[in-house]
Structures are given as C-alpha cells and as structure tokens.
Amino acid sequence: MAEQKPRAARSRKKKAEAGAVAETTVKRPSVAAAKPAEQPATKKTTTSRSRRKLAVAVQPDEIAVRAYLLWEQGEPGDATDLWLRAERELVAA
C-alpha cells in the first residue's frame, strides 16, 4: 500500500480571512421586521377540526349496546364491523 501524506490540521478561519467571505454574504430581513407595526387582535373562528376534538367521548358500554342492537337487527358484518359502525354513529350524533 502506498504511503499517505499527513493531512494538514483543520482549523477555523481567522477573522481576517473570514472578512472577505462575510462581505459577500447578504443578511435576510427578519420576519418580525416584515410585519406591520401593530395589528388589532382578532379572535380565531372555530374550525370543524377543533369542534371534533371538543366532542364528548363515547363510552365503550354505549358502543357495545348499539353494536348489539345492530346485530339483532340482522345487519351484515362481523363483530368488529358492527362495533366500528356503532362507534361512527354515536360520535356523529
């Protein structure tokens, strides 16, 4: 195998060397500077997504009763299908 030359030590650029590079870079204006001075505070309107989060959680006992009633009515599907349908119906109500 061929001998390798030792690598030069890496170090940070000195301020004098970095000065030339720093002069060519342009700073972007900050986001805060781009906003108008003052805006009146407005209340956010409620979206349908946040309304769904505020819905009351349906208890598993209620889901089980509704799934049983669906099964008694002869609705097609296995126990899991009926459970999921009952849950959807109760959450939507």
Category by helix and strand content: mainly alpha
C-alpha-based Rg, rounded: 33 Å
N-to-C terminal Cα separation, in Å? Answer: 78 Å
Q: State mean pLDDT (0 to 100 scale).
A: 74
Any low-confidence stretches, pLDDT <50, length ≥5?
none
In one word, what is the shape? Answer: elongated
Number of helices: 5
Strand content range: under 5%
Number of strands: 0
Question: How is the biggest beta sheet arranged?
Answer: none
Helix and strand element order: HHHHH
- The oligomeric state is single chain
Helix proportion: 40-55%
List keywords for this structure.
93 residues, mainly alpha, 0% strand
Question: What is the element layout, followed by pairings?
Answer:
Elements: H1 15-24, H2 31-34, H3 48-54, H4 60-72, H5 79-92
How does this structure look, described?
- The chain has 5 helices and no strands.
- It has 93 residues and is mostly helical.
- The chain has a domain at 57-93.
- Helix 4 packs across helix 5 (79-92).
- The longest helix is centred in the C-terminal third of the chain and has 14 residues, at 79-92.
- The chain starts with 14 loop residues before the first helix and ends with a helix.
Concise account of the structure shown:
The protein is mostly helical and 93 residues long. It has helices at 15-24, 31-34, 48-54, 60-72, 79-92. Helix 4 crosses helix 5 (79-92).
